[in-house]
Amino acid sequence: MATADEFRAAVALADLEETGRELVSIDGTPLAVFYSDGEVRAVNNRCPHMGFPLVEGTVDDGILTCHWHHARFELSCGDTFDPWADDVQTYPTRIRDDTVYVNPNPSRELPPAEHWAERLETGLEENLRLVVAKSTIGLIDAGVDYREPMATTLEFGTRYRESGWGPGLTILGCMANVIDDLEPEDRKRALYTGVRSVANDCAGEPPNFEQPSFSTDEVAFDRLKSWFRDCVEVRDRDGAERCLHTTIASGRSEAEVAELILAAATDHPYLSTGHVLDFTNTAFESLEHVGWDHADAALSSLIEPLVTAARSDERSSWRQPIDLVALLEDVYGGNVTETSGLEDLASAGAGNAWSPPSDFQETLLGDDPEAIVDALADAVRGGGTTEELAAEVAAAAGTRVAQFGTANEFSDWNTVHHTFTYANAVHRSTRRTDAVELYRGVFDAAINVYLDRFLNTPPAPIPAPGDNDTGRDPDVILEDLLETFDTEGEVNEAGRLVGEFFDCGGDPAALKRTLGHGLLREDAGFHTLQNLEAAFRQFELQDRAGPQSESVTGPEPRRRVPLVGTARYMAAHGPTRREAEQTFSIAARLNRGETIHED
Question: What predicted TM-score, i.e. pTM, was given to this entire model?
């Protein structure tokens, strides 16, 4: 309970009775003090919605209405009638010696971390962007690790979206993956971006009701895997879910659970333009942030996308004018769901150390699908691991983005993007399990690189090392890069500036921070956020990929290609209206207690 010493003189009671309202400032806090129905009430003068001065509002029948957006507040406790506006802070008042006293620093019911955690849940449930922004900023400012609100959001997103894992949860995972690459303030933006995307995905969706595991832990893993794949093949969601839950409940390793899901995700090539395998990879990576305790809910949310996926072997582009599926079936063992042929190739290469031929990238980027399939089959026979081959195909897919010709239809940016993120997901999945089925993911991605070949006609130039060694300060180059994103159509200039930055000795970490900031201030869509995250990871993974084939870009600049590509992709998709940034900025200023609309 507040003591007398904590109350400060605010306004003469007679003056307040005459005017009905007074604006006072105590210890830097602007207070709107009201006299209504014989009672004195005090609230923070900043409307929690957008900071408009509440002293200019209207009080009627105990309700304070802000005229800016007509948000209404119960005057005695500050609770809002309109959840999008958030609650307003109230302050205890006393009357002594005909003077109104206010306590400007009342004790809070909850510590900041608990308060903002509760508000986060409200923001998710009501899909309230401003509340989500305030909560994510408030939690990080309170010293809460980003993994805690991420876990809350992951649980919400899997529980309240019957259609399962989707773009929102993928964005959440992508933002968590790049959070360490960002400036501190942009880490808040990244968390806000992930959380609001999940809230938006779940808005209006029916909840998900999970199937239980089988009442046994004695089923062999190979049998569970076979059951799971069979259920997915016939699009039996409930049966597949029970098999998955049983696999997790029986204590199988993460690698085994990954093998089970990834086998089904590659039983048909390039499911749903690559989204299914990308969702799967991101789900596993999200668990690396929040912990395996969330595996049941997170991974079972992948079932619906799996069983409803569009299968590329049923698409004409994979059948005509060349039957690409038949090429793959010959290698896989007679059917796209087979692996016996791949097992034979891998067995022949066991114990061998493989290095890519000098023309390997050229072959992958070529126009002969039979040569591509033969080159990959020879690589497996020569001892090439799933990870080694996935790195090569991901490099080729990244080149397609970096060399995308701007004369193509704008929507085709997403064509090369989907191949790149799929190849990236395959590459990263090979680091989680060495399951033979992932060879199929490698071959599938390579075929899609082939299908995208016309989108590099003519290929946009990738800056070669030394071509842009201007001697300029790398920090100045980064400033120019940000300015480039402010201008529509500066696609090639964005790629050139990335090359110049490297040529002038710039620190890649600074480049990633700049790219991250440039993206997070925009109303970036699902694919652009995906593209940045995949480019960051490929930049790191290509550095560790081991022996690399010579290519049109050479081994050293190969690491640059994903960042050149994502800079061009960002430039093509911006600038935007930056509505989300406006909300973030308002939330940050309100949380800091700054003036927004007051003179």
Answer: 0.92
